[in-house]
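Ticket #4471: structure export looks truncated?
Reporter: QA, pipeline team
Priority: medium

Steps to reproduce: submit the single chain below to the structure queue and open the exported record.
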Amino acid sequence: MFDQYTKPPGEVMRLQVPLRTSVLLFIVILLLTYLYIVEQSWRLGIEFFGTAVGIEAGILSAYYVGRGLKISIEQREKALTEEKISRAFALASRWNEPNFAKLREDWRALLIEVTGKNENEVCDILQNDHHKKTVASDVLNFFEEVAYAARSGVAEIETLKNVHRSIVVKYYSAISPWILRIRRDQPTAYEHFEWLRDQWK
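Actual output as written to the record:
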């Protein structure tokens, strides 16, 4: 019952051969060797038997090697997926950290202010207020990082989607006029954030 907890870490399988079987095999080999030397008429049969046993052993060995590789690959893929999910949760938890509380508060106030405004009005609000521009830049940079992690496969996109989907779509839509203004000088600005919005909208 507790076998799974007593195996050494990383052990794929354990092949155990009883001592009685080992002794029996040793005796058979000695006997066949003796007959091969003494009985000339038995040689072809012994050679055939040895060849057949060798082929069978090779097939069995290949099977266990293949099985071991398959298990190793599955374990590696599972570990990689778990690591990506862990990174996704780490990004999600960063947004909810106490250190981000003031930024989130200022960002929500900014969203209320820019909602319903046209492109020029949104850009004027941000261009003429250094603090608001800094808040927008900090939030955009954070979600650009989240989007890049999702797009590159560093973090698991489904986990990020479950946590951030609604706010990614909402935030990008609200601040998109400012992003378009920035792209006049930086054509690729926040391209990953836009990509993520397109995946989830």
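Status: closed, not a bug. The export was complete when the record was re-opened. Leaving a note from the reviewer for reference: Helices lie at 3-6, 19-38, 43-95, 101-114, 119-127, 130-152, 157-182, 191-200.
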